Amino acid sequence: MSTHSLNTEEETESLDSEISTIRAELQTLHHRRRILTNSLLTSRPFQRLAKSQSQSQTTATAPRSSQKWTDLSPLLHSSALHADLNHHRIAFSTTAFPFTDPSPSPVPSEAKKLIGLRIDICARDGSYVKPYYILLRKGVLHLSTGSDAEERTGKGGRVLYVHRHTVPPVVDVGALERVYLPRAGGDAARGEEGEQLKPWKRSPNKKKQQDLKGFLREVRRQLVVWHVRCDGVRYLRERLGVVKRGEGQDADADEENGVWERDVLAEEPNQESRIARNDLGIVALAATALEAVYVRVEWADGRVGRFKISNAGLVERAVVMGDTGRDKLMEAVMTGGNGRLETLLDRWRKHASELRGSAAAAAAAASVGDGASQTASEA
Amino acid sequence: MARSKSIRAPTTASLPSNLRIPSSTPSLVKTFGKLTRQALLDLVFQWLEDGNVQHFPPYLQANEGGKREEEGDDDGLRPYPAERTINGVRNAYQELQFRKGGKREVIDRILEGDWRHGITLRQLAMVDLRYMDDHPSGLRWTALELARIDNPSSNESSACIPRVHASTFLSSLQQQISPLVKAHYHLARSTSLPLTVLRVFVTASPYQTAPRQSAESLTDSSRTIYVAFPDSCPFFYTSMASPQTASKASSALPNSLVATDVRSLQRLVRDAIPKALSLPHQRYTVKPTSLTAKSLEALLALRGPGRSNQANGAFSIFADAALEGSPLDPRPSNTVSPEEHNRQLGSVRSRDSAGKENTATDAKEATLETRRASKRSLADSKEPGTSKKRTLALQSRFGTSGTLSSAPLDRLDVRLLDALPGDAKPTEHAQQPTVSLAFAGTDVIGGIRKLVELGVIDAERMPCWMTGEEGVSVLAVREGRRVSKAGR
User: Fold this and answer.
1) How many domains, in total, are found in chain A?
2) When you count CB atoms within 10 A of the terminal residue's CB, does the N or C end of chain B come out lower?
3) A285 and A350 share a domain?
């Protein structure tokens, strides 16, 4: 009786799992079909054909084909527009779009219209990260004379300010806004106050115009640089090999080798992982914070290093501390060569092989005489 | 465990982590009793790990040596005879792990058996933090912002995030606090959220162990202050003592003469944090951000390292990237559901786990769809025209907040500064009445969303602070817009 019920339970379970896998497969197939349909619709020959058809349609009306093409045209039209938008997003990386603030406001006309800016950044594997958005509001000068007068003139009083944005705090949008989009009203008032206190100081912001292009360039640059740094650190970790905790339990012998650490750049930030056993003797390599400016390295022999990644993707500065003090040679190796972050492992390998070569030479020299071996080891 | 020292001098050292509280202290049972049986067992196994066991040594028989004979008969009477080795202790708890039973037997085993010589402050801190991990909304948290004091013209604009080195930070924090009070510090990583939590336990006395300072005061929960540091952002969160525990503590200790009430202790710690984080030529100050909430998830969403700090309410579609997909997606954006956009872009890197993810989200989507369908059919039967309009308005006002992302606020205080509608003279500020509204519940914004869904609130005329767009829990409003200072 009990075995029978067990069997049926197992059966239903297996059936359930089968159903769910089939459902998943259906889902993926649906997905694929949609992608293919839309790719076909946006493909260049198809679009060209549609365009020529619609042109011929306007010049000489052919009743049969017009029927067919008007049926298709909204779809074609929308996918053509979408393809255009995608091309712009890929080519220019920063694109603008209008957005209407849905919240009701006492002044409905101007204040609700926002300028949306979209920044697309391509990651290392060719995919795109979630776009970053900045929504700007067009405002009028809030001078002490009253905003109504400014509004009536309607000219020259227009300033932009950041209303909402989705840029993470790694890039300080507020500070950039203060630099590139100074609001004349507030700054003028502050500047006057400063002038009274310190008349010898010229307030630089007072005459400064808003520089939207500069603002966007700087925000995008910092975002791109941040992604490049993150990708660089991930690349180094992947080349060394990463073992996630709880996944590879086979390596019992490695237990003392690696240091379980939380990687801030990982998808699941609380997943602990460690560097796999490697020929360089590195037991840990990870960014110290989400910013990924500083990277911490730990060797199996107890040396600990830290290096800074510059905005250009170079290893800018490096410090390596061992038990006996700083390891200047290693630091020189890290910042030397072309200095690129991506070739850091190659430089380490080259250095290690050179060391091995010199050690072999020293061993050979040791057979010759004690004094020679001493100098070699000192070197 | 009182120490038999003849000379006591006030020191500036912090309370040591291995200071033991006698296991017979009754409040320890209460503290341990907050945890579940499994959580208690997990903690014990953590204490008994190879790397940790010297910090939390259990009571072993071999330790005693000479005293063994005299304690031998006593040991027989005890319900938990002392084990001889650490492995023995481990096995005992493994046995408890496999057996079913109440948590009381585990607590008894810890307090009367293996740690009968006392529970260290560090163990107590670990118990508290474990409780916090299991109950993320057990405390009220206030978000504070760190701002540079002296950077009028710094070019490095991403330099506002202080880089914290844990032990340096702790030692400088201790330097700040120690002249005033004596404290025990415990810094740990939250297991469930991307947070580093600092637990500061404050005592009033500058002496290591004052005899009058009873063991009870070392377990007083109103004297602990939690500070949570999210990863890489210029914010931190401090816990507020909930009013009922504070009042209970004051009633329990009526004769505590020292003026170290909970509020001033909290202020002490809060003021010390920016100073401890400051470096030469890089000083920080703390700014309030008018956000207090019970849920740490809400704080992380609104003042965290992510994308949703400045885009909530109607703008959550941008934070969740639910508006459009990647520029490589050939499908027109309006034909793809926001959930799919979000998932597609979110799981770009974790593609290996896509199989598992797919089924889960499918199920979720299916339930969502059925729910939506049922809702629609329900609404359709009543009034088909307005319901569609209402759902559209709802989506435009609330975006994806509440569906894709949620930041549950448990309290929202609003002060309305508008003049009365009939009042023709807006210059008379003195006589202008202010109306204060307070919303309370598990998820205030979610509740307002629900009311809009049901048609109680008109979505189109509702002011934007009701959608949670500002991301604050306390705000003043004039003409439907938030004013930063009441004077403006």
Assistant:
1) 2
2) C
3) yes
Q: How far is CA A344 from CA A224, A232, A292, A329, A353, in A?
A: 21, 10, 16, 14, 14
Query: How far is residue B321's CA from residue B312's CA, in Å, rounded to a whole number?
Result: 12
Percent of all residues in chain A with a pLDDT value above 90, rounded to a whole number:
14
The tens digit of pLDDT for each residue in B240-284 reads 654 434 444 444 444 444 445 667 777 778 888 888 888 777 788
**A190 vs B contacts (CB less than 8 Å):** none
pTM exceeding 0.95: no
| Residue B431's pLDDT band (cuts 50, 70, 90) | low
Residues B462 and B337 in one domain: yes
**Nearest CA distance, A333 vs chain B (angstrom):** 26
- Show which of A193, A220, A247 is a domain's final residue: A220
B321 to chain A, any CB pair closer than 8 A? The answer is: yes
Q: Give mean pLDDT, residues B222-242.
A: 80
3-state SS of chain A: helix, strand, coil percent to 5? Answer: 50, 20, 30
The answer to whether B338 and B317 are in contact (CB under 8 A) is: yes
Which pLDDT score is estimated for A57? 57
Note whether A348 and A237 are same-domain residues.
yes
B337 lies within 8 A of chain A by CB: no
pLDDT, tens digit, 9 for 90 and up, residues A24-40: 999 999 989 988 888 88
Question: Kindly report the CA angle at A327 between A324 and A331, in degrees rounded to 5?
Answer: 165
Q: What is the pLDDT of residues A182-230, one digit of tens each?
A: 876 544 444 444 444 544 544 444 456 788 889 999 999 999 999 999 9
Q: Report H helices in chain A.
A: 2-42, 44-59, 63-92, 147-153, 173-180, 184-197, 212-240, 328-335, 344-368, 370-378
Q: Are B232 and B305 in contact (CB under 8 A)?
A: yes
| Domain-terminating residue out of A220, A249, A283 | A220
Considering only the beta carbons, identify the residue of A38, A86, A166 that sits closest to B327.
A86
pLDDT digits (tens, 9 = 90+) for A152-192: 434 455 788 888 899 988 888 888 888 888 876 544 444 44
Distance of alpha carbon B43 from alpha carbon B52, whole angstroms? 11
Position A20 scores a pLDDT of: 94
Query: Could you identify the residue written with the tokens 């359709």?
Result: B380
Residue with tokens 């070739």, as numbered in its chain:
A343
Q: Which of B 358-387 lie inside 8 A of A, CB atoms?
A: 358-359, 362
Whether the CB of A169 is below 8 Å from some CB of chain B: the reply is yes
- Asked if residue A51 lies in contact with residue A77, where contact means CB atoms within 8 angstroms, the answer is no
What's the rounded Cα separation, in Å, for the pair B26 and A329?
A: 59
User: Range of B45's domain?
Assistant: 24-117
Query: What local confidence, expressed as pLDDT, does residue A252 receive?
Result: 47
The answer on B222 and B355 residing in a single domain is no
Q: For chain A, how far is it from start to end, CA to CA, in angstroms? A: 81
Same domain, A237 and A365: yes
ipTM for the whole predicted complex goes beyond 0.90: no
A275 and A309 housed in the same domain: yes
Residues of A with Cβ-Cβ distance to B481 under 8 angstroms: 105
Q: In this structure, are A331 and A232 located in the same domain?
A: yes
What is the least distance, in Å, from the CA of A368 to any CA of chain B? 47
Name the residue range of residue A293's domain.
225-378
Q: Is residue B119 within 8 Å of residue B111, measured between CB atoms?
A: yes
Task: Show Cβ contacts of residue B229 under 8 Å, excluding neighbours closer than 6 positions.
Answer: B164, B195, B196, B197, B198, B236
Task: Report the alpha-carbon distance of residue B345 to residue B321 in Å, rounded.
Answer: 8
Q: Same domain, yes or no, for B220 and B317?
A: no
Phi, psi (degrees; rounded to nearest 5) at A340: -65, 145
Q: Per mean pLDDT, which range of A204-213, B88-97, B116-125 is the poorest?
A: A204-213
User: Max CA-CA distance within chain A?
Assistant: 103
Give domain status of residue A355, yes or no: yes
